[in-house]
Amino acid sequence: MADIAVLSEPGRVFLARHSAQPFEPMTATLALIQGIWAVDPKMARKILRTRIYATESSTLLAEGTIRVAAKRWNAGTSHSEIEKLLEEARTRGSELVDVTGSGKQARESAHIEFSPKAPGTDSDWMTQLRDRLDAVPIDPLLPRFERSRAVAAALVLPDDTGTDETGWAVALNQNVSNRTLHAEMILIENWWRRQGCKLPAKTRLFVTLQCCRMCAAAVLHVCENPGDIEVIYGEPDPGPMAAQTMLQKYGRELPYLK
Ligand SMILES: [Zn+2]
To answer: Does residue 143 surpass a pLDDT of 80?
Structure first.
């Protein structure tokens, strides 16, 4: 049975369903949050202060997503409890909004560039990514702490992946329109959608800013072993979102040294 995540606010109940495959960087909770941003970007931040109930068991990926893009969460809620919650909402006359498809559409339309050739050294990578930071869409009208951050990331596959992938892809932060669409998430989601399997060992992820908790968890989620992917970041992030991430604890996250 597919997992379901639900958020009930006055007048509206949002829900998303998802059956995750092994290593798939997606959960019902992430689908719900992504979907709410897709259908109501103006109110999403406020809506997501409300508690989310989900049937899925707690995973690092879902926890990371909650830390970055929502507030309160009850994982492991039974299907019958969720049904009861939906029934109560229907009785109150609330509108039922299934955002499963909207979230999917948002992540699948996130912009990404593929290229057949890797730029070469770590320094070439970082220079390439930093050169693209001006292209990151930000919202100058928002207060500083709520603005999208200029972040670019590149996923570099080892030469012997045995897939028909082109070798590397670059993505920019797009969280001005959807708080879950960080550059690293876009890359990892794209990999999964194109290949449907874990990332090959010796994959490298270059990113201009240290990974947040959601992206760090997503990186580990698509790896068989925490050491399979090396993450090289350009700048440390001293903020709370990048504090004590799973990548720092268990993975291979290295500062870029000129
Ligand atoms: Zn992130």
So the answer is: no
What is the dotted CATH code of the domain comprising 110-255? 3.40.140
* Rounded distance between C-alpha atoms, residue 7 and residue 23, angstroms: 25
Return the structure tokens found at 52: 């989310």
Q: Please give the average per-residue pLDDT across 133-156, as a whole number.
A: 78
Distance from Cα 121 to the centre of ligand 1, integer Å: 24
What CA dihedral angle connects 12, 27, 39 and 177, to 10 degrees? 140
CA 175 / ligand 1 centre spacing (Å) = 9
Ion ligand 1 — residues with CB < 5 Å: 182, 212, 215
Mean pLDDT of the chain: 90
pLDDT level of residue 159 (50, 70, 90 thresholds): confident
Domain ranges of the chain: 3-105, 110-255
Distance 219 CA to ligand 1 centre (A): 10
